[in-house]
Automatic annotation (TrEMBL):
Residues 17-221 form the Cation efflux protein transmembrane domain. Residues 228-303 form the Cation efflux protein cytoplasmic domain. It is a multi-pass membrane protein. It is found in: Membrane. This is Cation diffusion facilitator family transporter. GO terms for cellular component: membrane. It comes from the Bacteria. Keywords: Membrane, Transmembrane, Transmembrane helix, Transport. The chain crosses the membrane at residues 12-34, 80-101, 121-142, 163-184, 196-214. It comes from Sphingomonas jinjuensis. The lineage of its organism: Bacteria, Pseudomonadati, Pseudomonadota, Alphaproteobacteria, Sphingomonadales.
Length: 317
């Protein structure tokens, strides 16, 4: 498999969404120019913003793969989280903001109704393309989430690319349904203001999605622990090593979607010499690296068992 093919396969969700959104955006803008539909123009802006979002996420993934250096000893993996947060802000500021503004303008000064046939054709094509992208995103995320529930898997996911596309495509499909209903209702009730109201509703949908994405991206950017199951397994492995009498704590943080820094505080057997302690640390690190390849950095600190430490003045157990 060539490097290009492997990269496309790795980012199939992003490339699929990008291809769909570029084509959809062009079609929607053409339809909006022909028909004067506010909802269609809003949908075009929505698809254009989504296209830019996919480009930013691909750029973020590229930047995040840079190797560690003196300035960033743990690498650049969390740069992807920064771009994910930027994407959430763009959805809110550009996607939702423009949608609400356009809707308000068309309610205040509605445009005359025109033949809706072009809108229906474009919306049908957009629904097929967006549905294809959504299907890819759902399939890829379902394969990665295992037996977890959808919302729980999203909250625990450390790879924003997958769930951002899933949210975007879901919002896009909902927006298409609203736009189609608005086009029909505008003509059925001979009231072009309905089109503007639909644009505002689409903006509100995007706003909710943006807030949810921003919350998830913020948590990743600040730093989230590894999956509790991984933490428990690391503790179990360390506790099972001869020479370890207790594990005080295992603290982790994701430095990238597939990269974890772990700091372990453990009580070593007092009978161990310094050389034996160093050998034990090397053995633990080798074992952990073998069992958990995602542990990019392992720090093990010998410390007395926490419940055996003397109390500080005024401290109460």
């Amino acid at each position: 498999m060539s490097t290009l093919t492997a990269r496309i396969r790795e980012n199939i969700v992003l490339y699929g969404a990008l291809a769909a959104n570029v084509g959809i955006a062009i079609a929607k803008f053409v339809a909006a120019a022909i028909t004067g539909s506010s909802a269609m123009l809003t949908e075009g802006v929505h698809s254009l913003v989504d296209s830019g979002n996919q480009i930013l996420l691909l750029y973020g993934q590229h930047r995040a793969k840079r190797p560690a250096d003196a300035a960033h000893p743990f690498g650049y993996g969390r740069e992807l989280y920064f771009w994910a947060f930027v994407v959430a802000i763009l959805i809110f500021a550009v996607g939702a903001g423009v949608s609400v503004y356009e809707g308000w303008l068309h309610i205040k000064d509605p445009e005359p109704l025109r033949d809706p046939l072009v809108n229906y054709i474009v919306l049908g094509i957009a629904f097929l393309l967006e549905g294809s992208s959504w299907t890819i995103a759902v399939r890829e995320f379902a394969a990665s989430k295992g037996d977890e529930g959808w919302w729980q898997a999203i909250r625990r996911s450390k790879d924003p690319a997958g769930f951002i596309v899933l949210f975007e495509d879901s919002a896009a499909l909902a927006g298409l349904v609203v736009a189609a209903a608005a086009v029909w209702a505008s003509h059925a009730f001979n009231d072009p203001r309905i089109d503007g109201a639909a644009s505002i509703l689409i903006g509100l949908i995007l706003g909710v999605v943006a807030i949810l994405l921003a919350r998830e991206a913020k948590g990743l950017l600040i730093g989230e622990r590894a999956d509790p199951r991984i933490v428990a397994e690391v503790r179990r492995v360390v506790e099972g090593q001869p020479g370890i009498t207790a594990v005080n704590h295992v603290r982790t943080i994701h430095t990238a979607p597939d990269s974890i820094f772990v700091a372990i505080s453990a009580d070593f057997d007092d009978a161990l010499t310094m050389a034996e302690g160093e050998t034990l640390i090397e053995r633990i690190e080798a074992t952990l690296h073998t069992q958990f390849p995602q542990l990019s950095s392992i720090y093990i600190r010998p410390e007395k068992r926490e419940d055996a430490l003397p109390l500080a003045p005024g401290q109460v157990m």
